[in-house]
Design a protein that fits this description.
Layout: H1 3-7, H2 14-26, H3 34-52, H4 56-68, H5 76-92, H6 95-108, H7 113-125, H8 129-142, H9 147-159, H10 163-174, H11 181-194, H12 197-209, H13 215-225, H14 229-243, H15 247-259, H16 263-273, H17 282-295, H18 299-312, H19 317-327
Helix pairs in contact: 2-6, 3-4, 3-5, 4-5, 5-6, 5-7, 6-7, 7-8, 7-9, 9-10, 9-11, 10-11, 11-12, 11-13, 12-13, 13-14, 14-15, 15-16, 16-17, 17-18, 18-19
Length: 329
């Protein structure tokens, strides 16, 4: 399987600036009124839900309301909300707003790897690869052993056609020292993304031998990428047994069952995944649920699920066409 196919397996204010000014005067504090904190967390969750629904403008509004609760206090929660807001601005197409938010974060902490990363994403979207590369470089300089950030940088650059730059940056991640189980696991993950399955297996086997059961997930993906579905399925099941319910794994297993034509087991896995809160890939999971019902010839259930789906995702033109077909069944 090609690297591109392997990647398929995986698939965050002028007002903020004022808050940063406030923090220079008053300092970081974690003390806020309980009611204010509850409101702030509630708006933050609304924003996250809006992002999951791909309503990025609504997400920006919710995150701004969360920041408005801060009462001139800037702590870890406020910074976290800012990352989400910048990401929502980026996804909504408000690149200037996202850059302004990231600039404020960087003015507050010049070693903020997440802010550099998000700003790099914005520059890349605008076609400014030089600035993107510089920001990605800084993000990786300040991120320590954050392998996930290395992978995100790699995938963004490679996806934009800057394969050589992507390889150069991700190579830094493979040179990171560390002999803890999670170090082996994440290095194996990097090799997996790059399509270097032999080295991926070596690193992941080391992690598993050191007791890291989470590495089973990536090892399953190695075998899936090499079309060894039997071994991959066994590893996915072992991962779930040791780590409990995991939406990503349940989804992967369900899609494997669908490809094998076992729609009943796929449906059970999908419905288990749908019980989880705040699903990042809820849209695709629910579409797969409808497909399972259709293939099981339970058109009444498929119609019911489609009706609910279109209420939540009315802009899905493919689903609208499929709904016409369902009405004839």
């Amino acid at each position: 399987m090609e690297v591109k196919q392997a990647k398929r397996i995986y698939q965050r204010r002028t007002a903020l600036l004022l808050a940063i000014v406030f923090v220079c005067s008053f300092g970081i504090s974690g003390c806020q009124d309980k009611k204010v904190l509850e409101n702030q967390q509630a708006y933050r969750q609304v924003g996250i839900n809006k992002m999951n629904e791909e309503d990025y403008a609504g997400a920006v509004e919710a995150f701004q309301k969360a920041l408005d609760q801060s009462q001139a206090v800037v702590g870890e929660l406020e910074l976290d909300i800012c990352y989400y807001k910048a990401s929502a601005q980026y996804n909504s197409g408000d690149t200037k707003g996202a850059i302004t938010t990231c600039n404020a974060l960087i003015n507050y902490d010049e070693k903020d790897s997440r802010a550099y990363f998000i700003r790099g994403c914005v520059y890349l979207k605008e076609g400014d690869s030089d600035r993107a590369r510089k920001d990605y470089d800084k993000a990786l300089d300040y991120c320590g052993n954050n392998y996930a950030l290395y992978l995100s940088v790699y995938e963004n650059l490679a996806g934009a056609g800057f394969t050589q730059e992507a390889e150069e940056l991700v190579a830094k991640g493979l040179k990171l020292k560390g002999s803890q189980p999670e170090d082996y696991r994440e290095r194996g993950h990097i090799y997996l993304i790059r399509g270097d399955y032999d080295n991926a297996r070596k690193e992941l086997d080391q992690a598993i031998n050191k007791g890291d059961s989470k590495a089973l997930l990536y090892l399953a993906q190695v075998y899936e990428a090499q079309n060894d579905s039997k071994k991959a399925k066994s590893l996915y099941e072992s991962y779930l047994e040791k780590n409990g319910s995991d939406v990503s794994t349940l989804t992967s297993l369900a899609e494997m069952q669908m490809e094998a034509g076992d729609y009943q087991n796929a449906l059970e896995l999908i419905q288990t995944a749908l019980k989880e809160d705040n699903l990042e890939n809820e849209k695709q999971i629910r579409r797969n649920e409808i497909i399972c019902y259709e293939n099981l010839l339970d058109f009444a259930a498929a119609k019911e699920k489609m009706e609910s789906y279109l209420k939540d995702f009315p802009d899905d033109e493919e689903a609208q066409r499929e709904n016409i077909f369902l009405q004839t069944r």
